Predict the 3D structure of the following.
Amino acid sequence: MKRLALPLLLAGCVQTTGGRLVEFSAQASGDPAVVAGGPLSFTSPSGFGVTLTRAHLFAGALYLSQQNPQSYALEASCLQPGVYSGEVRGAVRVDALSPAPAAFPVSGNGTDAQTRSAELWLTGGDVEADVDTTVVLDVAGTATRGTDSYPFEGAFTISQNRMTPPRNPALPGSNPLCQQRIVAPIPFDAQLSEGGTLWLLIDARAWFASVDFSTLTKVSDTPLLYRFTDDSSSSAQADKALYNGLRAAVGPYRFTLAP
Amino acid sequence: MSPFRTTAAVLGLAFAMAPSSARAEVTPPEVVERVDATLPSDAPPPLQDHVLLEFTVGTDGRAVDIHVVESAGQAWDRAAATALAQWRFKPARHEGLEVAARTRLSFSMPAAVLAQDAGVPEDAGVVEAPSPADGGQSSPEPEAPDAGGLAFTVSDAPDAGHPRHELSTTVLGRSVPRSRGASDFQLEVGELQVVPRRSAADFLKLAPGILLTNEGGEGHPEQIFLRGFDAREGQDLELTVDGVPINELGNLHGNGFADLNFLIPELVENLRVLEGPFDPRQGNFAVAGSADYQLGLPERGLTVKGGYGSFDTARVVALWGPPGESTRTFGGVQLFRTSGFGSNRGATNGKAVAQYEGQVSENTSFRVGAQGYAAHYRSAGLLRADDVVNGLTGFYDTYDARQGGDSLRAQVNFDLHGHQGKLSWDQLAFFVFRSTRILENFTGFLEDAQLPQQNPHPQRGDLIDRDTSGFTVGARGGARWRVRLFERFQDVEAGYFFRFDVVDALQTRVEAGGNVPYLREYDLSSKLSDLGAYLDVNVSPVWWLTLRGGLRAEVLTYDVLDECAAKEVRRPSTGNPPGDESCLSQRDFGKYRDPTERNSTTGVALLPRGTLLLGPVAGVTLSGSVGTGVRSVDPQYITQNLATPFASIFAWEGGAAGAWRFGAHDVSARAVLFGTRVDQDLVFNPQEGRGTLGGSTSRVGTLLAARGRGGFYDASFNVTWVRSQFDDTGLLVPYVPDVVLRADGALFHALPFFQPMGAPLLGRLGLGVTWVGRRALPYGQRSDVIFVTDVNAEVGWRWVSLGFSITNLFGAQYRLGEYNYASDFRTSGSLPTLVPVRHFSAGAPRAVMLSLAFHLGGEP
């Protein structure tokens, strides 16, 4: 009887339901492969020479998902219970020109389930709020093409200024504001571990990849200054392109996981 | 244990002394006290219909020098002699002096035993009470039934086919089911009634391996864990009360939802728990097993009991059992209210029950009963452990004070039992109306998905409002026929079960902060039926070998009208968009469709079951059982014309059960090794707020159980270990406890030294201990250990008794139920919490209750 009972007992003791809960830290910075701590100069795919002197991103929260990026539905609800594998419920303002990581003020927690994608929440708090005046992107610099120079600055918020009418009036809920505030799905294949560090790396160059600075609105001649309009109703290509660049899931953002 | 009960109810029965010439000179002994006798359930079938004992009634009133004159088998003889040894007599008198007298007494087998157990010689029959007209000398109450349904008569004249004897018994009670092995627990509550119990469901703990939890409040049914199953509110456990089914078909909380709260605990006399689907009588939902409550009121007369205790808890119970009637004839009413411990746990309920047992003829008895129950309760629900640790909420607080529910039940049942010659039969008809409303919020603000056709909205709250109302009409019955084979009597039983349910079920989500629903999730009108037929054979070729088993067929039909069949449309009409309507009447591009849809289907399951019994040898019976079972699915999951999907169960077990007597002490014990596989297990789904179908799971385990009873004590102990895992991954099934230990004990005796007005004080002390090991939780977590001790003390004097109970004696702050899942109750900022964390329902803190009872008008 002992021979039978002991293995059964041991088997019962060592087995689990699978998986585990984990706690980890999180930080964000400019991509060290791109930035060195000063102004960032680069040539955009559209042929502008850009020197960024300020690039601050307000990362309101991070969520990690088990959902494959290909599985994200266009009209998916902002919250999809049951698919999240990690969360960092705190905000940090990140200097995207600095490789020095800025730590999120709270620990992240989640599970060791396979993470397939990540979400960057650009919100000052409630992702479903009608009004959110948090500046989620603050940039400044100079773009040049040929002899033209475009000193620029821009500060984006995502509030009623970003509300877009539904494509189909019969589908009024097809484009809720919360979707504007969530950058997803950012490809991220990883498995969280206890005590690990989640690192959000920002490549500010990607924000400007499609921006035609020549369409910017001039706000001052002396000194010369162009400004990105913080409103989706703006018809300027530059405004739309930067906003789309800010919200691009592929390009500006990359996650790594250090044990 | 097969109950074969006697009580001290019949007094003054005169013995007729033989020879008759001496009768004028001798005043015969009189019975002044008789006590319960218990037969081991696994005893071999009786060899004949009675045991005739010869004994001497001494001047001290005790029966001594007991000899078996006519044997029915060792176990039966022992049981009869044991019972007789505990009787007390007024000694015989001769010429004014007390003298010892030798006499005879016949214990007849219960009719139920004769009807169900094989091996009775062909010429044996039930001893009928001889009437004076037959020359018998009847007692003053010749047909008075007792607690076990026994009626004693006195006879000094030979009756047909029987030797001359002085006392005989006949039986009016119902059939006692045959044992299906070591996992078949015939639990007589007995003196363990004194152990504190919060509800009638708590009696289930007398069977091994059962854990009850409740996150829903005082009126919410207990969640039952049994033998490696999370049976939720009965979905995996077939529950009946005197044969009337309690599991509800079509309840949105779970098909098979069972609410035992309508029972008055004091009226629970016996309980049969069969762990595993091994009896062909077991039907739908007998996945982990079945439990049948048998109601009765041993104490005759009027009992009025009132109690008041912690948390402004008050309870008043009135019970009455007419003297001279069967213990199955009784009435009762209970009123209860409490403010509950912590936040939002108040409850109020009322219960009423009445039953009458009588005889249609000498061979046929009947029962008619009615029950009513109404309850309203509040529920605290679950809390996040991190919120408690961070001081964001208290251990006994709630997130959503709208949680709670209502419950109504009205029931009428009527049954017949009869026997004639080699045939006996049972018939039961029942009519049940019940209504259940449950409001629960497991996830806070997560589930309100923004659908494209809806106007933009934030999360409006996840409070689920489930309402299910249904009417059930049904019947069950069976007939047993004894046939002579292998020179022993064997028997064959055929039976049926039928129920038809009409159920309306509505589930909505209610907007936070009010009582306004914003979404209709289910709106079902169902007509459901369950027809079962079985054949059960009992074969005993030799006394030490018995085969029991047969085949059951279960036919389940569904006719479900879904009044909210369409909830989403990808391309709605631009001219007439549906907006926020829950139940849509259009398909793509506005093409009309009715929002309703009807689905009907049927399914058939064949369920073989069998048990092999060896023994008893030295009081020990070995047994092995195999069986298959079935659980029907929720109505919302059926599809037109597709065969009804069942969950199929295969179970096996092997074990040993024994019963012994050491002097005045009865001891029984059993050990079982068991295993069960179910192809679609139910796993708790917090998003749905109930159990939903998961993968196939298997479990293997073992249990030990023992009970000891004597003149001043009754103690029960059981421990169960089980490992339950998914078949595909080998991972443990969450929430199911690995180890459950339960001990119940009662001490009862007249208190020494102090006898006010010459009447003794009778003391009773009850103790219940539950220990549950660390349960497996999702994500490799383990729950805390549960260790709770309850005590109760009572002192009775003549017609009054005073009781004081303490539940959770040591004041342990413990988590009764624990879960790991994602929720967002907006307690820590506006960012949602979306990953799994620990949740729990708080176990009740220490509570005291003082109760006072009056017993009036009972039998002396």
